[in-house]
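User: You have something folded?
Assistant:
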Amino acid sequence: MAGMVEEGALQEVPELEGLAQALEAAAGAQEKILLTLLAVAVVWGLRWLVLRLVTRRIEEPRIRYQWGKGSAYVAFVLLLALISQIWVEAIRDMGTFLGLLTAGLAIALRDLVTNMAGWAFILLRHPFRVGDRIQVGEHRGDVVDVRLFQFTLLEIGNWVAADQSTGRIIHVPNARVFSDPLANYTAEFPFVWHEIPVIITFESDWKRARTLLLEIVQREAAEVARDAQNQVRGASRKLYIHYGTLTPTVYTDVEDSGVRLTLRLIAPARRRRAMAQAIWEGILDAFAAEDGIDLAYPTRRIFSNVLEGKEGARAELPEALGGSAAPAPNPGTRGSEEG
């Protein structure tokens, strides 16, 4: 009988040891969880205090934003380091499992991983910064925020003309910086070329009109061209940007409805509409004072070669109306038959 009791006691010992180990592991995990929560509370509490001091002392929105983003990154790195130290033993014991889990998550959550890679690319390479005006794919706008998985644009254009704001907020996944072309309106060289076509009638004095337009565009854009020339020198240290001249000019061309005079000028990326308005007001005032210049518009005209055009290029009146039977030969063409 005594032997049977001793044997049963021996069988219960491993079970008691397993229970003790489980209780010890649970206590250790509980302690780590409490330490983790305490670390989160302390770090984010310190961040809150810092931001409160910054908000009281700094009025500039851009600097406030930079403090908010910078403190968030510092808090995240600090928390990551503290939590790693707290859970280092558990992580070491679960290394193989975590490796397999990470590989599975990388496949299942590849879009999120790509967005995180895009975030790192934005921070390290700076294809744009907060405040820049950019276009990525079909979306255009001012960058107002950059986060771990997406960046945010205040949209311009779309149904609104001349790059004005629509008021819509667009959230773009960070991965788009790898898959779509990205245009930056303001980085390094915050100017863009702008053209304003002005069409006048064929009967207008186009030489006089061109002189007036050149005076107007030089008056409105000469100072901007000087500023742009100075900034080209700075931008050329980082990028191969080279312009022979930045002075505004006027080009002449012909369209169906008249003579097209195109004003070409360089303008700040955010002031294209304001400059175009000032130039157009100057054009309307100048043309209103000129009796020999008219703006053209789509028209339907009937041209009589007998009555209009240069005299040497006119057709002769038909015989029934008092003219010769055959039209006068055109000196620039050869007759269809030879005698």
